[in-house]
From TrEMBL:
Protein name, as recorded: Methylated-DNA--protein-cysteine methyltransferase
Keyword Cell membrane: no
Span of domain Methylguanine DNA methyltransferase ribonuclease-like: 5-75
Example GO biological process: methylation
SUPFAM superfamilies tied to this protein: Methylated DNA-protein cysteine methyltransferase domain, Methylated DNA-protein cysteine methyltransferase, C-terminal domain
Reaction equation(s) it catalyzes: a 4-O-methyl-thymidine in DNA + L-cysteinyl-[protein] = a thymidine in DNA + S-methyl-L-cysteinyl-[protein]; a 6-O-methyl-2'-deoxyguanosine in DNA + L-cysteinyl-[protein] = S-methyl-L-cysteinyl-[protein] + a 2'-deoxyguanosine in DNA
Originating species: Pseudomonas hormoni
Active site residues of this protein: 130 (nucleophile)
One Pfam family linked to the record: DNA_binding_1
Lineage: Bacteria, Pseudomonadati, Pseudomonadota, Gammaproteobacteria, Pseudomonadales
Length: 169
């Protein structure tokens, strides 16, 4: 399977936007682990309409003028991973959830670690907001883009109060 891609500069580093036909399949970080997201061969196609729309919507998000994405997505993963990723899409802008809350939401409250693993494999970062998932204590935990990027995204969304504690629980 051949995927197309383009890149864009962002406040969290260069992002690689990947499409499968007319659907967004991945947003990869500048220093992403090579096997975190499995994709076929990639060919550059900056004029692919979904990539143009994704780049525009991400630019608006980073400028603070967009808080919802309107893109066709193509999640490639196991059924369990897809359940977790769909749950991520329900977390409102400016709010956070814990891994245990996501596990409960998908009907498997004992799968907290599996939810964490699926969250780490989320291929469509930012749009499927895995950055909004934090530890039950409110502590920031692992993130493919790095904890600095996670904190920047949460701050952009207003999830950090003046005390530095996460809001939204």
């Amino acid at each position: 399977m051949t995927f197309t891609f383009t890149t864009m500069a962002s406040p969290v580093g260069e992002l690689k936007l990947v499409a499968n036909g007319s659907r967004l399949a991945a947003i990869l970080w500048e220093n992403d682990k090579p096997n975190r997201v499995r994709l076929g061969s990639l060919s550059e196609a900056p004029d692919n309409p979904i990539l143009v729309r994704a780049r525009q919507q991400l630019t608006e998000y980073f400028a603070g003028t967009r808080n919802r994405f309107d893109l066709e997505l193509d999640f490639v993963g196991t059924d369990f991973q897809k359940k977790v990723w769909q749950a991520l899409l329900t977390i409102p802008f400016g709010e956070t959830r814990s891994y245990s809350q996501i596990a409960e939401q998908i009907g498997n409250p004992s799968a907290v670690r599996a939810v964490g693993a699926a969250n780490g494999k989320n291929p469509i970062s930012i749009v499927a907001p895995c950055h909004r998932v934090i530890g039950a204590s409110g502590k920031l935990t692992g993130f493919a883009g790095g904890l600095e990027a996670k904190e920047l995204l949460l701050t952009l969304e207003g999830c950090r109060g003046k005390t530095g504690r996460l809001e939204g629980f």
